[in-house]
Amino acid sequence: MTGDTALTLDGRTANRIVVDTELPTTTNGVALGFHRALDGQDDSDSQLTTRDVPAFAAPTEPVTRGDFEFYSKWDLIAPPNDQGSPPAYEYDLFLPERQRVPAVLSYRADRATTATLDTWYRADTPDTPGVDVRWAARPDYRHRKEFQRTVPRPGKRTYFVSAGDVRWTHEVSMTRMPGDFAYFTGTPTSYRPGEVLREEWFGRPTGPGPRALVPPAARTGDTLDLRIASHVDTGGHWNNQVAAHDVHRTTVHANGEQVVDHAGVPIMSVPVRPDPTTYRLDYTNERSAPWWQYSTRTDTTWTFGSTRPADGRTDRIPLLELTYRPQLDEYNRAPGGGSYGFALHVGHATGATGAPIASVTGRASSDDGRTWSPMRLLDLGGGDYVAQLRHPASGAVSLHVTAADTAGNAIDQTIIRAYGVVGS
Questions:
Q1: What are the residue ranges spanned by the domains of the chain?
Q2: Distance of alpha carbon 314 from its chain centroid, rounded?
Q3: Nearest-CA neighbor of 333 among 424, 204, 397, 421?
Q4: What is the DSSP letter of 174?
Q5: Which end of the chain is less packed: N or C, by CB atoms within 10 Å?
Q6: Which residue(s) pair with 281 in the sheet?
Q7: How far is CA 328 from the centre of its chain?
Q8: Residue 50: partners with Cβ closer than 8 Å, 6 or more residues away
Q9: How far apart are CA 151 and CA 123, in angstroms?
Q10: Which residue, among 352, 329, 327, has the nearest Cα to 341 in the 3D structure?
Q11: Is the pLDDT of residue 85 over 90?
Q12: What global pTM score does this model have?
């Protein structure tokens, strides 16, 4: 508009948005929003309600200058049952319309047009529900208002999620307790229509590790950027928020001299020396909460060498990483009182070029790290191992694993009460 203009807003011209789902649903929340971009400027906004109400939109003429998108976003859940149990399935739908609002807004959501995500949530203790949100992003903008839902822990839920060029980021908290920031985040993902995937959340052990799409350690010039999450579960979901009563400490040594002492997680930029130097990164975290009974303390030391990269280049540091894959029940427990084996992978940070693995050792403890017994490690090749140990009748197992490559990069990690054991 270039001058005074009269606008007439007439709700009688709006048409109801109709969403037909394959399974019966009720509306848990709906949002209506827009994105507008013109002459180098853009704007977006939305309105959200968590009530089961119909949604309407008035049709428009096509937009001929710049970009315009209207969308509706729906959280549709299985109808309530007589037992009052959490819904077994949900639809997360993002329904965009480019350059105009059409007169007919009618959609069909079924297994052929959505992705199916069969999702299991583990828990350390019975009846500890959490909450989740699923953030939606389009290629040009992000929807910034979301629905918070209760998730069963332990339990299973199936999600039917819009496919195509919508990128989803799922965040799930292990608790609904105020002040406890226990959100774990999944990798931002776009899905294919008809795709069926399995997800597992909150599997033990959890320990420090990488966040998806972000290198855990990278160097540009004389700056070392650390982006290591405090806890990563066995599904690759990461948590780097500080919950109530957490204890975190990060230190960095350069050729034996301490250069960083930080009471927090290793997410920071560190000035480093230009000449070849051996660095030691130590990180300890402790977490104690009613909903957090395992992996209560981790102590990890990374050793690596670094020198200034060429101008304009960023080098990814080949930090060693340990990935544990024990087969546990819904309460993160393995059978007690006998021999047990689990998968262990030793490798370097994604995107970094690492030397061959030279050595791996492992120990286990059934008394929270006071005494240790060696684990037998069966080498399968390619950094894959089977760790063999003997379980106590009940309680918890602590783990201590070390690894080194032929270039001198190393990791030394202890996880106290890594997972539980239960008698038959």
A1: 13-201, 207-422
A2: 25
A3: 421
A4: S
A5: N
A6: 252, 302
A7: 20
A8: 28, 29, 147
A9: 11
A10: 327
A11: no
A12: 0.93
DSSP string, 18-83: EEEESS--EEEEEEEEEEEEETTEEEEEEEEE-S----EE---PPP-SSEEEEEEEEEEEPPP-TT
Considering only CA atoms, which of 297, 317, 299 is closest in space to residue 308? 317
> In terms of CATH, what superfamily is 207-422?
Macroglobulin (MG2) domain (2.60.40.1930)
Phi and psi (nearest 5°) for 335?
-60, 140
| pLDDT exceeds cutoff 90 at 196 | yes
In tens, the pLDDT along 281-336 reads: 999 999 988 999 999 999 999 999 999 999 999 999 999 999 999 999 999 999 99
pLDDT of residue 302: 98
pLDDT class of 86 with cuts at 50, 70, 90:
confident
| Contact indicator for 35, 67 with CB cutoff of 8 Å | yes
Q: How far is residue 368's CA from residue 137's CA, in Å, rounded to a whole number?
A: 43
Structure tokens at 106: 């009618």
**339-348/207-210 β-pairing:** unpaired
Lowest mean per-residue pLDDT among 71-80, 242-251, 373-382:
242-251
Separation of alpha carbons 91 and 80, rounded Å: 15
Region of 28 on the Ramachandran plot (φ > 0 left; ψ -120 to 50 alpha; else beta): alpha
Residue with tokens 């492992």: 362
Cα–Cα distance, 247 to 60 (Å, whole number)? 55
